[in-house]
Amino acid sequence: MASRVIPVETFDLVIFGGTGDLARRKILPGLFRRFLSGQMPADARIIGAARSDLDQAGYRQMIKDAILEFGGAEKEDAVCLAKFLEQLNYTPIDAKGEAGWKALAGMVRRDVVQAFYFSVAPSLFGDLAARLHSHNIATETSRIVVEKPFGRDLETAKALNKSLADHFDESQIYRIDHYLGKETVQNLMAVRFGNVLFEPLWNNHYVDHIQITVAETVGVGGRGAYYDRSGAMRDMVQNHLMQLLCLIAMEPPSQFGADEVRDEKLKVIRALQNVESHHIVRGQYDAGKDGDGYRHDAENPRSFTESFIAMRCHINNWRWAGVPFYLRTGKRMKSRVSEIAVVFKDLGHSIFEGDEKRHRNILAIRLQPNEGMDLQVTIKEPGPGGMRLIDVPLDMTFAEALGDDAEDVTDAYERLIMDVIRGNQTLFMRGDEVEAAWAWTDPLIQGWEARNDVPKTYEAGSTGPEDAQMLLHRDGRRWRDLKV
Ligand code: NAP
Questions:
Q1: CATH 3.30.360.10 occupies which residues in the chain?
Q2: How much is the pLDDT for 484?
Q3: Which atom of ligand 1 is least distant from the CA of 51?
């Protein structure tokens, strides 16, 4: 079963920061895969732009190396890779000065879809937006793509939004949260709103609680100094986990349109209760068998920044009243797992004599590894011996279920970039969503800063601090295992 690829309109995509890590590891390898799939028109053009003094050949070589290293390109793709590189250009530019802008203006076509990817530090967003206009490059339909971090609190996010809004309409701004581009995350919406089975159960009558986990095995090494100014709350919860929470909890939009979906997500964020301090556990990893501790990695021996956070949240609305949402994310954890688990309530009464075990249906949506879903159901244990019940997963791993099409499950970036070209903002964060998320997060961060809260240590390679287990034990619940 081969997937149907619909080519997009032709485009000029300028990647500011075209020599940077994100461009080389994600954006350009992703574009190459779209090229291989036949989605990229032959006259589409990609223009890398950065300060480095490279010529066309030098840039093409840099990106060829990057695609071979990060893009999964095989030897037999060599001919295709050479063709793809022919569509790639480079122009040196300084976001903070006038150098290079005239040349860029001469390169970008005005009669095709124009997209400008700001793959640079957020401090340059305002300069780029302003110069795209002062040099008469952007049009009323050009799109700009910006990356996280989108601010470090409400005030800075508002300032960033303003620096873009001064030059571009909200309908032109694409704020990337790559979690939203993941196949499973979109499947979450398909499962919820495309099946009659789940929606009637999706409320406080049937759902006991929901767990959202994003656990990483890697530490902060390499970007320790950056991370130390941020922490798990800013780096993961305010954006990725919050977006997952919104998608799982939102009301059905009237249609799958950008503003309809984003309006519903915004309502969820605005309905979030403030989290009490005893419902938040902050942690910092200690040295483990095969690595140093956080403070060493962050090069800050007195750091109070959290590399782990677990919290219990509530959504103040009719559907979710009384249902806890437990969020946890951390670095240097036992295994790399991202999943959302909807844990349904116990049966009120069991008709099976001697069956004292608690059986629960759990719908687990796995973002990584093995993108897919499983639904835990209770069945009879096979064989003689009466009605003994066991819980088994009905497993759908996309790679198995979809065969060849599973290749499309690879990377969120390529899907999101094609959405930019198509002009579809559904999977991008709107400015008011980002601000609402910071408005909820800020008081929590300010609270622990004012208390001089010291994160609990946890052993690297573990499931996090003991207090995180207690957070659920107190409620008579437990975290799902972090399976390897
Ligand atoms: P990076 O490796 O430091 O690259 C920065 C890019 O910006 C380089 O191409 C640099 O090239 C260019 N640049 C710097 N100053 C410039 C200026 N004045 N004018 C024009 N170009 C300039 O950073 P990155 O990791 O690619 O990250 C880019 C953005 O994506 C950041 O906002 C980051 O937070 C975000 N992000 C990155 C990742 C990731 O995996 N890397 C993930 C999520 C979000 P020259 O030095 O040649 O000018």
A1: 180-473
A2: 56
A3: 48
Percentage of the chain exceeding pLDDT 70: 95
CA 398 to ligand 1 center in whole angstroms: 33
147 CA from centroid of ligand 1 (Å): 10
180 lines ligand 1 (CB under 6 A): no
CB 236 within 8 A of CB 230: no
Distance 233 CA to ligand 1 centre (A): 22
Distance 427 CA to ligand 1 centre (A): 23
Structure tokens at 198: 């789940």
Most confident of 117-121, 219-223, 408-412: 117-121
Name the strand (E) or helix (H) holding 118.
Answer: strand 113-118
Reference 292, options 384, 193, 219, 200; nearest CA is 219
Report whether 456 contacts 284 (CB < 8 A): yes
- pTM equals 0.93
Q: Is the CB of 19 under 6 A from ligand 1?
A: yes
For 180-473, the fitting CATH number among 3.40.50.880, 2.30.30.40, 3.30.360.10, 3.20.20.70 is: 3.30.360.10
Please state the atom number of ligand 1 nearest to the C-alpha of residue 148.
44
Q: Does 319 score more than 80 pLDDT?
A: yes
CA-proximal residue: ligand 1, atom 33 (nearest): 121
Mean pLDDT of the chain: 92
User: What three-state secondary structure class fits 221?
Assistant: coil
Q: Which amino acid is at 388?
A: R
For the chain, give every residue range classified as CATH 3.40.50.720: 11-147
User: How far away, in angstroms, is 130 Cα from ligand 1 center?
Assistant: 18
Predicted pLDDT of residue 76: 66
CB 250 within 8 A of CB 421: no
pLDDT, position 409: 45
219 lines ligand 1 (CB under 6 A): no
Q: Which of 209, 240, 279, 314 is catalytic?
A: 240
> Which CATH class for the 11-147 domain?
alpha beta
Write out the two tokens for 201.
Answer: 């159960």
Token pair for residue 449?
Answer: 């800063």
Q: Comparing 74-78, 355-359, 360-364, 403-407, which segment has the lowest mean pLDDT?
A: 403-407
Is 278 one of the annotated active-site residues of the chain? no
Return all residues near 102 (Cβ < 8 A) that are at least 6 apart. Answer: 135
Ligand 1 proximity of 122 Cβ (cutoff 6 Å)? yes
Nearest to 448 by CA among 248, 306, 343: 306
